[in-house]
Amino acid sequence: MAQAPADDALITTYGRLVEAHSHLGRQLGRSLEQQAGVPQTWFEVLLRISRADGSQVSMGSLAQQVALTSGGITRLLDRMIDAGLVERVACPTDRRVAFAALTAQGADLLERASSVHAGDLRQVFSAFSDADLQTLDDLLDRLRATVGPSPTTGPSLAAGGDPVSTGPGGPPSRRPRDG
């Protein structure tokens, strides 16, 4: 008897990946909100702006990085601007382009939230050895390369970007772990 398509092992593998991502996202997002006072989406925006060349990123590029429409990123940034975390910077060479840049308040919040996030990630991955984490990074890099590099990271980071959040200027794939 032939295997039913729904019983394909790859469907189960993908489902486990989605489930882990979903649970981890909720857990980490809740912690960021409670301990640092920042929604996870805002944290991602702050992180990606800070890692961009010149610590500013075009609105279109930022929308692609955080998977929002141009209208969605505009509304999100409007709220972040109202909160004093981000500012719009006009492109000196093209009036149609605007960049998002961190304010000093946004940089301070990112530093506090990054400490919370890094601590949470250390706890989540505490049962993983350095070799396990390197293997996970390698597998995620291969998966990302298979599905295609993001429009913002391009080929250079597709093979070695940060496994948690990639963006222009992101750190190398495996950073030393504390303790």
Provide an overview of this structure:
The protein has 179 residues and is mainly α. It has 2 domains: 18-126, Arc Repressor Mutant, subunit A (Orthogonal Bundle), CATH 1.10.10.10; 128-161. 58% of the residues lie in helices and 7% in strands. It has a 3-stranded antiparallel beta sheet. A hairpin with a 7-residue loop joins strand 2 and strand 3. Helix 3 packs across helix 4. It is globular.
Task: Write a brief structural summary.
The protein has 179 residues and is mainly alpha-helical. 58% of the residues lie in helices and 7% in strands.
Global morphology: globular
Which value, in Å, is the CA radius of gyration?
A: 18 Å
Q: Helical proportion? A: 55-70%
Q: How many domains?
A: 2
Named CATH architecture of the largest domain: Orthogonal Bundle
Annotate the secondary structure layout:
Blueprint: H1 9-36, H2 40-51, E1 56-58, H3 59-65, H4 70-82, E2 86-90, E3 98-102, H5 104-124, H6 130-147, H7 154-158
Antiparallel strand pairs: 1-3, 2-3
Features:
2 domains, mainly alpha, 179 residues, disordered C terminus, single chain, three-stranded antiparallel β-sheet
